Amino acid sequence: MSYHQAVYDEKLLNEIRSENNFKFKDADEPDLPKEIVRKELKLPNVAEFDVVRHYTRLSQMNYCVDLGIYPLGSCTMKFNPKFADKIASFDEFNGSHPFQHESTIQGTLQIMYELQEYLKEISGMERVSLQPLAGAQGEYASLLIIKKYLEVEGMSERTEVIIPDSAHGTNPASASMSGFSIVEIPSDKEGGIDIEALKEALGPKTAAFMITNPNTLGVFEPKIKEIAKLVHSAGALLYYDGANFNAIVGITNPGKMGFDLVHFNLHKTFATPHGGGGPGAGPIAVNRKLMDFIPTPFVDRDEKKYFFNYNVNRSIGKISGFHGSFINLLRAWAYIKYHGSDGMHNNTVHAVMNANYISARLKGKYESVSASLKKHEVVVSSEKTGKKAMDIAKFLINNGVHSPTVYFPLIVHEALMIEPTEDVSLEELDRFCDLMIEVLEKDVLYLQSLPDVLPIGRADEVKAAKDLCLKWN
Amino acid sequence: MDNSEKQILDCLKIDSAEKLFSDIPQDLRISLKGIKNGISEMELLSEASLRASKNSRGMISFLGNGIYDRFVPASVDYVIGRSEFLTAYTPYQPEMSQGMLQSLFEYQSLICDLTEMDITNSSMYDGSTALGEAMRMAYRINGKKKVLVPENILLNHLSVLRNYASGIYPEFEFYKMDNETGEISIEDLESRIDDDCCCVIIYNPNCYGIVESKINEIVSLKKSALLLYYYDPVSLGLLKSPGELGVDIAIAEGQGIGINQNFGGPTLGLFSFMKEYARKSPGRIIGRTTDKSGKTAYVMTLQTREQHIRRDKATSNICTNQALMSIASSVYLSIVGSKGLKRIASNNFANAKYLQKKLSNAEGIDPCFFKGTYFSDVVVGLKKEVDVEEELLIKNILGGKKASSVLNAIPEKDTVPHFFTVTEKRTHDEIDFLSGTLEVMK
């Protein structure tokens, strides 16, 4: 399959010469003091038909999940089901206001309630807040909960959060933003938690240990129970980063493993679209001892109706303006309802099978950096092949396959982090693996000349940062 | 087991996929007993429709205070519904993501045109978190503690601000509003601004919905403090821009420019600032550069501020943002254009005035609870004993929220202040219907 993206020399909106043709009813201008009125507004002057054509052309210069495999490790680029988009387009849902009287939004509240129940079941936790708007915000909300819990329990001297060196950047960023200091611990040889390093780091100042399981190398942490025990007996809390949740849905859960709180990325695990970077949704779930700290309100019900429950004694308050990224909550609800417990289990199994298949096919070609049994993703290093991960990425995109995540996790040199998800055929997996192997035979100079079938060649990122140009003239 | 599955298992030299989970101890295993098995798409749609039917339809909305029932051209939902935008990830491979990157660059440019600020980032989650991030950015810039907040601030914003204060420990101080005009008390604000002041948060229109008639003077009071200016993007069709006023950071809720109400999410946090603060700013930023042959190219830039590079030293933890919503706002602004936005803004002012006029002769109703000029949210004083919200529901009207349930502070007067919000979408007939209903209720 050869690949050529549409190539337009697409002008910027403000360079398009056509007259604006928007119609709107007239109204008297308000009687305002002259000095508070703007002299002029200079938005582009474009006809609606040209606006639509402009964006349609731009869209044709963009790769997406609906075009093919998008194996970004840790990003979980599943197929985004169209039934979820359809439900998200219902006026009854997207036309309602967050301050509407509860009696007028019983359907909305029912969906939120059901999603809370699903997420409780999937995580093995006691209470869910749907309010955080993205994974990183879920982390931040959780750290605020930890902080408040420690204050209430008279343990404010616990100011350190332990984070493995393989963690996503958001973990240390969220912990630092909420006022904790970071203690980074090294990973063991296979990329797992170094128990001795953890023991050394744990102490009377430890507030929490933040990890993801499977870890960023895609390997299930075998000593998780021992880790939970160590963390709890040191008086600290154990936090589950849900970025890799899709590897364990229906198999195990953070509650069983001994975690105290967790965030979900609905745009990863439950296939809501990524929108070119967002919006996502990052609900959190907590166990019994943290139940009284979650953001308010959550959705509750009695015999007659669903309602917002504000009765959370020690709530941290609000983490975002309203009730979360509702349209994505709705899509995740649809995903869970459609797939059900059998379908979600099946999805987990297939995601893991596909990752292990890639791992097996690349064995001997690339250096594997972790235990042989993978979960949802596989990390390989191209260091010993003499090829740069970036050059491999450009070869792949030149052939119409999105690249894996490159140069992450930071603990692996020339890392390629591959997550196929369950929504890829064997044929597509083979095409990806064939390209990954084919590239190793290619001349380095040729690779450095790629891509050459896309709208641009390699972009000069150094220049972008040096001669800042962040808007049109 | 289908054929592909068998081929994969053969390649892995195992007979059952279950073996792939042999690393997860048996005592950690679960099954999702509380969730039923899956259903077909047809059944799902009927379940979803059933729930949708439990939401009321055809209500006339006079709700606002952050989320507005505004007009969205059909082309907006068409563009953001295109898979190439909807199902893409963050543009980590710029060469195959030029469409998204150029769109985001244009978004930054459009919001800069609207605000006349130097730089706009590539979006925050919503207005409230944009405000929280702006406060943190101000602290990074000057390291000072005092944060001046209007006493009538929206309760949800105040709560989010307090949560975004974690780790920087600012001292919040409330400045007063003038109880007659409903505008900022310049005297009170001036008395509180000193050298320890980190930032001053100014809403315009303010949280009562009133446009500050002396905004130039207010902005001039800031001394060494940073001015955080929270605006309504639609109002900028007419009002002086934050850039022209000379504010330091301009933030807004972008829902009103091209995004459905969505029950409050997803929306869009607009975030703009002066160029000298670029390296202290949070969030993703797109820059223009060239490829190796000199062709124009767009990339993510200034990434060394961000969490995936700088980790605990990052300017923010934000990763996922509101990219798709920012395209919605770009499509909206380019379709509506300068004249259109001015006209839409005028319709808001005109409707607010019309509502006040309609209620001016009704006994027991005070449409001039404050003397100032309203943009979209309007405070109306009503007699104490009425539970307006529930009574209006019977007439299919949404609105009449008690101001005390939305705002941190509101003065006591002879009547109880309630909010009625009008947008460009409300017709005179609808406003007549509301005023008629309120009159009968008194």
Brief account:
The complex is a heterodimer of chains A (473) and B (442). Chain A is α/β, with parallel strands linked by helices and 473 residues long.
Strand order of the largest sheet of chain B: 2-9-8-7-5-3-4
Largest interface, with counts of residues having CB < 8 Å to the other chain, equals:
A-B, 192 and 195 residues
Taking the alpha carbons of the first and last residues of chain A, their distance comes to 40 Å
Structural class by sheet pairing and helices of chain B: alpha/beta
Sheet of most strands of chain A: 7 strands, mixed
**Count of helical regions of chain A:** 15
The CATH architecture of the largest domain in chain A can be named as: 3-Layer(aba) Sandwich
Oligomer: heterodimer
CATH homologous superfamily identity of the largest domain in chain B:
Type I PLP-dependent aspartate aminotransferase-like (Major domain)
CATH architecture of the largest domain in chain B: 3-Layer(aba) Sandwich
How many structural domains of chain B?
2
SSE topology sketch:
The complex is a heterodimer of chains A (473) and B (442).
Chain A: H1 48-59, H2 82-88, H3 91-94, H4 106-123, E1 127-129, H5 135-152, E2 160-164, H6 170-177, E3 181-185, H7 195-201, E4 206-211, H8 224-233, E5 237-242, H9 254-257, E6 261-264, H10 266-269, E7 284-286, E8 298-301, E9 306-309, H11 326-362, E10 367-368, E11 378-381, H12 389-398, E12 405-406, E13 415-418, H13 426-438, H14 444-448, H15 461-466
Parallel strand pairs in A: 2-3, 2-4, 4-5, 5-6
Antiparallel strand pairs in A: 1-7, 6-7, 8-9, 10-11, 11-13, 12-13
Chain B: H1 3-12, H2 41-52, E1 60-61, H3 74-81, H4 83-86, H5 98-115, E2 119-120, H6 127-142, E3 146-150, H7 155-164, E4 171-175, H8 186-192, E5 197-204, E6 210-211, H9 215-220, E7 226-231, H10 242-245, E8 249-253, E9 269-273, E10 285-290, E11 296-301, H11 307-310, H12 323-359, E12 365-366, E13 373-374, E14 377-382, H13 388-394, E15 397-398, E16 401-402, E17 416-421, H14 428-441
